[in-house]
Amino acid sequence: METWTVKQLLEWTTDFFKKKGIEMPRLDAEILLSSAMKIKRIELYTNFNTEPTETQRSLFRDFVKRHSIGEPVAYLVGFKEFYSIPLKVDPNVLIPRPETELLVLETLDVLKTFSDNSAPVVCDVGTGSGAIAIALAKNLPKSIKQTTILAVDINSNALKIAESNAVLNGVDNQIEFRCSDLLANVTETFDVIVSNLPYISQTEYETLPDHIKNFEPQQALLAGPKGTEIIERLTAQLSEKLNSGGYVLLECSPMIASSVANLFANWNSVQIIKDNAGHQRLVLATKN
């Protein structure tokens, strides 16, 4: 009977994924095999000639089959790294994107502008897996004495995942999670509001790749015909929820960045920030 070593499995699967048009065939093969074998990905290279057990191969075959028809690797293995932190994910939450790390980075820069020993109050609206709130909590500027972070989401199942991720990363004592449709169930006011809300228009949604459209939660992606509908609902609440001189940072599609910026035309300042690819990705506005 033919034996299948780690090296052979990776080579065959990489070639198979390439033929399926998968974007990162080798990386995906390594993540799936290391998960099936319950070892770190780097350990695959010290076990090239090892033959996985039948149980491990069976699980790996299932992973490969499901990924080949579009199921995301993050959902298959149950986690995704974001801003160098591990996050549990499942189909209740959007898989965190590298682009959203820019939102964290810019928010941390904003927090650095607060005076030493201040205690700014932050709200992450539409927290999903908790990625933004947790990354902020783990990387707060040392000059800030204390920061209160409230993370809200309309999906109670997503909040359970976010709460478990906060525990996993040791910041559950720094973040309060609350079920709320945007800021409807929130009475507090904030110095910084940060959000990666659904911003995909109906037309754009129809063109999304199947591995996104068929597996990730529509509620976390689709905003409406224009793409700005949910962001507009949030901005209508900011007059009461954002303190004077406070900041709002919003991730958005390059297609709607100008429209989102126009929502803040009468504010003290507004700027559009580009991502590493040169696309308009964030809107940062300061309240009068």
Which terms would index this structure?
two-stranded antiparallel sheet; alpha/beta; 288 residues; Rossmann fold; seven-stranded mixed sheet
Blueprint of the fold:
Elements: H1 6-19, H2 25-37, H3 54-68, H4 73-77, E1 79-82, E2 85-88, H5 100-112, E3 121-125, H6 131-138, E4 148-153, H7 156-168, E5 175-179, E6 190-195, E7 200-201, H8 202-206, H9 210-213, E8 222-224, H10 229-241, E9 242-251, H11 257-262, E10 269-274, E11 280-286
In short:
The protein is an alpha/beta fold.
Give the count of structural domains: 2
Give the percentage of residues in beta strands.
15-25%
Low-confidence stretches: none
CATH architecture of the largest domain: 3-Layer(aba) Sandwich
Residues in helices, as a percent range: 25-40%
Most strands sheet:
7 strands, mixed
Shape: globular
The end-to-end span amounts to: 74 Å
Count, helices = 11
Structural class: alpha/beta
CA radius of gyration: 21 Å
Q: CATH fold name of the largest domain, please?
A: Rossmann fold
The CATH superfamily title of the largest domain: Vaccinia Virus protein VP39
CATH top level of the largest domain is Alpha Beta
